[in-house]
Design goal:
With about 525 residues, this protein is α+β, with helices and mostly antiparallel strands. Helices cover about 40% and strands about 15% of the residues. The strands form 4 sheets. The protein has a 5-stranded mixed β-sheet with strand order 1-2-5-4-3, covered by helices on one side. It has a 3-stranded antiparallel β-sheet with strand order 6-7-8. The chain has a 3-stranded antiparallel β-sheet with strand order 11-12-13.
Length: about 525
């Protein structure tokens, strides 16, 4: 089906009056249905954020770009989501040194996004927190990697002092952990303020894996950018490459065959299942239950082998391509995959019973790392972790693209907000994804798996939004002249969720941090472009 926006005359049902006004003012944007854009001034930038926040809306992403034909003109953008539609507000801004209005009072997650805009583009917000976020002294303070021109040269300073917030009081001491960790894990620094073993405060510093991905996008052909998008965060390769292609195909006015879309959904659910299997095993291991790690590792390996037999890759980095998918499985591979999914679903029912009945595992999971629903709402927790804290949002249902409009996945929501709830959500979502994948394999529509895509005209903005296994993945794509990418912003849900981990650990003991951290399993790489 065409990925076109809804006609301008279609009313927005059952919305508060301020959102009706924004809906009427917005113009269709290439991308999923019910996505609109509106150019605003500084006052309206704040008004839109306030109206969406008061209506229970969410900030999906905030980013900036340099205008294609201007050296000192920029555009700040924020994607706001509420009740089944998304508005991208656009604030033109000149590089005059004047700060633009920060949105952190309405959406606390905006703060780190605004600090990243400062590091990469040099545009400062009114947010009182002006500490660097992505810049660790690796490039000069007056150089900005996303501005056109020569890339900043590396400095001789590998790092700079960072002003962590100190906790004062009798018996309080600090435990620094990272950025280098004792294992195969990406770098991140965690500064604990503790009394004895009890955590009073945690503050994170991320950004150590800065790879220059957003700058690298500008050096690529727009028809090739999906391969880099798939590598933004390797555990979400399908979600990112689909979001990229969704934005590209909408601007190129391409109608995808139904078979191509169903194959993409199959890949996305396989990615979700693989990650849930890996996490459930790791969580069992962190609770001292090595049996869980062994069993879930075995099941994940069986799934990855079946995935490779079907699509030629264990992890589907290059399988979603412009116009569809790179290849499709033959009938035998589809039957084998369906059989394997059935076996995994049945075994996971038994493993969930073992986890639920094991006293030691239950003791570690229950009440650990709790994020209450009201705090999750206030701070904007989203995705899997959000659904474990009462946040009823799954874009496969709330902002669906084909074929999810037909598949109609079942939402999985818990309210307890602890490690046990996040484990339960994984178990239930794994079962639902196995069901969806088996239905897709059984009802796969006939037709082509790929159609040609022409390069879209420059000067457009396309938006792709896909619910990955961790949460909503957003890709904003601006094609430039000569078929190159002018700007591509890829946003991971970890931006919203990392700050909640700081709250989840408060009142717990330091040795429980690895377990609580794994129960969120947030992306370092996707948070640092």
């Amino acid at each position: 089906m065409p990925q076109q926006s809804a006609p301008a005359e279609v009313p927005l049902p059952s919305q508060p009056d301020p959102l009706q006004t924004w809906w009427g003012r917005g113009t269709p944007l290439p991308g999923p249905d019910s996505v609109r854009r509106a150019v605003v001034d500084a006052t309206e930038w704040l008004s839109a954020a306030r109206d969406f926040a008061m209506a229970g809306g969410r900030l999906l992403a905030l980013w900036g770009s340099q205008d294609a034909d201007q050296e000192v003109r920029f555009t700040l953008r924020a994607a706001l989501l509420c009740a089944g539609w998304c508005l991208v507000i656009e604030l033109p801004w000149a590089d005059s040194g004047e700060p633009y209005p920060g949105l952190e009072d309405f959406f606390p997650a905006a703060s780190r996004m605004q600090r990243a805009v400062r590091d990469l583009l040099g545009l400062r917000s009114t947010d009182p927190d002006q500490r660097p976020w992505l810049r660790h002294g690796a490039w000069p303070a007056n150089a900005y990697p996303l501005r056109r021109g020569t890339l900043p040269s590396p400095t001789s300073t590998s790092s700079e002092s960072y002003p962590f917030v100190r906790v004062e009081g009798e018996g309080v001491h600090e435990i620094p952990v990272g950025p280098v960790h004792a294992g195969i894990i990406e770098p991140g620094h965690f500064r604990f303020s503790v009394v004895g073993e009890k955590v009073l405060r945690l503050e994170e510093r991320l950004g150590y894996v800065h790879k220059g991905i957003e700058r690298r996008f500008t050096e690529l052909d727009v028809l090739e950018g999906h391969r880099l998008a798939a590598r933004v965060s390797g555990d979400s390769a399908v979600a990112y490459s689909w979001a990229y292609c969704q934005a590209l195909e909408a601007m190129a006015h391409v109608t995808l065959p139904a078979r191509a879309l169903w194959l993409r959904a199959l890949m996305l659910e396989l990615e979700r299942i693989a990650n849930h299997l890996g996490d459930l095993g790791a969580l069992g291991n962190d609770a001292g239950f090595a049996f869980g790690l062994a069993q879930f590792s075995r099941l994940k390996e069986l799934l990855l082998r079946a995935t490779k037999a079907a699509f030629g890759q264990r992890y589907l980095f290059d399988s979603v391509v412009p116009g569809g998918v790179r290849s499709e499985p033959d009938a035998a591979a589809m039957r084998e995959l369906a059989t394997r999914l059935g076996e995994i679903a049945r075994e996971c029912v038994e493993l969930q019973e073992i986890y639920d009945e094991h006293g030691g595992v239950r003791d570690r999971f229950l009440d650990a790392g709790r994020v209450a629903p009201d705090l999750a709402t206030r701070l904007g927790l989203i995705g899997l972790a959000g659904r474990a804290s009462g946040q009823d949002l799954d874009l496969r249902v709330d902002l669906p693209c084909a074929p999810y409009t037909e598949l109609a996945p079942r939402k999985v929501v818990r309210i307890e907000g602890d490690v046990a709830a996040r484990v339960a959500v994984r178990f239930e979502e794994l079962q639902e994804s196995c069901r969806l994948a088996q239905r897709i394999l059984a009802q796969m529509p006939p037709g082509k798996h790929r159609v040609p895509v022409e390069r879209p005209a420059p000067g457009q903005l396309g938006l792709g939004i896909i619910e990955g296994w961790r949460g909503p993945v957003l890709v904003a794509l601006e094609p430039g002249p000569a078929g190159r990418i002018h700007r591509c912003h890829a946003h991971d849900p970890s931006w919203q969720n990392w700050p909640l981990l700081e709250h989840a650990i408060i009142g717990n003991i330091v040795p429980d941090f690895p377990l609580i951290n794994k129960s969120f399993n947030l992306s370092y790489s996707g948070h640092d472009l």
